[in-house]
Specification:
two-stranded antiparallel sheet; 3-stranded antiparallel beta sheet; 8 helices; 3 domains; elongated; mainly alpha
Length: 343
């Protein structure tokens, strides 16, 4: 025989369920006690309400000014008019004192709010001037594009030779990763990016309504998603396609010296053969449109900030704030209640 058979009281296995059963029984007893207490409380409430309704002598008197009638069950007043009269009397008694206390001690939050409003107004003026500058840039760019289209087409042998020599060089596409010749790299990357861009959608439930703004968002309605396209109208590959380029069309890109110095000359190569300035009109227009959108977003943020500051200043000295909050001035000689660190 094993040790467990000889001494069965040493086996710890039968002791575990006994402990669990005791815990479960204690938990059940506690739950039953709580439920009984809740039932007793609810029964007491029902009895008191019934007795109050049956015996009007036990009801309390209404707290309204000059009212003698008993209260309604579960209320301090006999009607809503009595409650409104008492609230009005309290306001007439307490509010004038609170207004005098408010006017005696200067409010630092009001000073900060005024400074914030001045800063917001300055930033709004800067944003408006920035938006006007971008609108003038928009019209200047359109004039430059029209001037470049009026240039005569010329074909140089040097440019053709350089384009032929660049055919041997290879470069990897940023979007798909394929190796492409330098001669066709810009065109391939632009088309490849447009393919991947069409797969993602940027939409909104409402069209954009901006006064005085032209050619910003695409705003083409999609009946499947029931949304308006929110890409830039110039760069939207899904709803705007590039026009076909004719053989006689000029590139017309303004030439630049040392990256930033404008020479006043234009690229007179045919648009089909020019690989250096591929889609320059689209990119320049998109750059100007992005700057305009940033200025509009900045104006919108400033308007929201101004609204928040003004609502805070309005609610600070309101009726509810004066009735609920009070600043106690222990020393009547000091008018400024700020500490030395804050001042």
């Amino acid at each position: 025989m094993s040790d467990t058979e000889e001494l069965p009281f040493l086996d710890p296995a039968p002791q575990k369920p006994v402990v669990n059963v005791k815990k479960m029984e204690n938990l059940k007893k506690k739950k039953e006690k709580k439920e009984k207490q809740k039932q007793k409380l609810t029964e007491k409430r029902k009895r008191t309400e019934k007795t109050d309704v049956k015996n009007p002598v036990l009801l309390r008197q209404c707290l309204g000014p000059g009212c003698v009638y008993p209260t309604r069950p579960g209320s301090k007043y006999c009607s809503d008019d009595c409650g409104m009269k008492l609230a009005a009397d309290r306001i007439y008694e307490i509010l004038p004192q609170r207004i005098q206390q408010w006017q005696k001690s200067p409010c630092i939050a009001e000073e900060h709010g005024k400074k914030m409003l001045e800063r917001i107004h300055r930033e709004q003026q800067d944003a408006h001037s920035r938006l006007k500058d971008m609108e003038s840039h928009f019209h200047e760019l359109e004039a430059i594009i029209q001037r470049g289209k009026q240039q005569a087409v010329c074909k140089d042998e040097e440019t053709n030779q350089s384009s032929k020599n660049s055919l041997n060089l290879q470069i990897f596409c940023v979007s798909c990763g394929q190796s492409v010749s330098m001669h066709v790299a810009m065109r391939h990357m632009e088309r490849c990016f447009a393919k991947y861009e069409c797969k993602s959608s940027f939409g909104s439930m409402y069209p954009t309504c901006i006064e005085g703004a032209t050619r910003l968002f695409c705003d083409v309605y999609d009946p499947k998603s029931k949304k308006y396209c929110k890409r830039l109208q110039v760069l939207c590959p899904e709803h705007s396609r590039d026009n076909k380029v004719s053989d006689d069309e000029v590139c017309g890109c303004p030439l630049v010296h040392n990256v930033f110095e404008v020479t006043g000359n234009f690229c007179c190569l045919p648009k089909r053969l020019c690989n250096l300035h591929y889609c320059w009109e689209k990119l320049r227009r998109a750059e100007v449109d992005l700057e305009r959108i940033r200025a509009l977003h900045k104006l919108e943020e400033l308007v929201e900030q101004e609204h928040k500051v003004r609502t805070a200043m309005r609610n600070r000295a309101g009726l509810l704030g004066l009735m609920l909050h009070q600043t106690i001035q222990h020393d009547p000689l000091t008018t400024d209640l700020r500490s030395r660190l804050d001042s």
